[in-house]
Specification:
single chain, two-stranded parallel sheet, 12% strand, 164 residues, 4 strands, mainly alpha, globular, two-stranded parallel ribbon
Length: 164
């Protein structure tokens, strides 16, 4: 996280923090502002909101073009979610919220990105096309230069075409 914050402060990229209790989140924001005074925090919200009626928070995330990094298996292992079949990633994706699927710490979670995709496909009906979109969105929101993003997107498309 420290490297991401350093890069954001240096490049002017903004961050949006979502999760934790209100108390922990405010402490986190205060620490970030203290340690990275030039960072642009686009916004933040605690992790406790009604996923069946999250209009305000989702609209803010959509308007600010924020991509949420989701670690489904980690969310289950840390008891944030009971089972992947209940994970809100499907609702977020269907609400046109940009998401990317990640493994968190695969040495702790013992999961690969392929495993995450398989679980999401089986339990939440995500498709190959969905995962391609997520990956392209992740590239577009990566903390790299615009030239690097374009090169990476081109390389990604070339690899996809080879698979077809």
């Amino acid at each position: 996280m420290k490297k991401i914050l350093e890069k954001c402060e240096k490049t002017g990229e903004s961050i949006y923090l979502l999760g934790a209790s209100e108390e922990n989140l405010k402490a986190c924001v205060a620490n970030i502002v203290r340690d990275f005074p030039k960072i642009n925090i686009a916004g933040y919200h605690n992790g406790f909101f009604d996923l069946n009626n999250p209009k305000e928070i989702l609209e803010e995330i959509r308007q600010k073009d924020i991509l949420l990094e989701i670690c489904p298996t980690s969310n289950v292992q840390t008891n944030v979610i009971k089972d992947i079949k209940y994970h809100p990633v499907r609702k977020l994706y269907d609400a046109n919220i940009l998401v990317s699927i990640n493994t968190d710490n695969n040495t702790v979670s013992n999961v690969t990105l392929t495993t995450e995709y398989e679980k999401l496909a089986q339990k939440l009906n995500f498709t190959y096309k969905d995962f391609v979109k997520m990956n392209k969105d992740a590239i577009r929101h990566a903390f790299i230069s615009e030239d690097e993003k374009e090169q990476l997107l081109q390389k990604y498309d070339e690899k996809l075409n080879q698979l077809s």
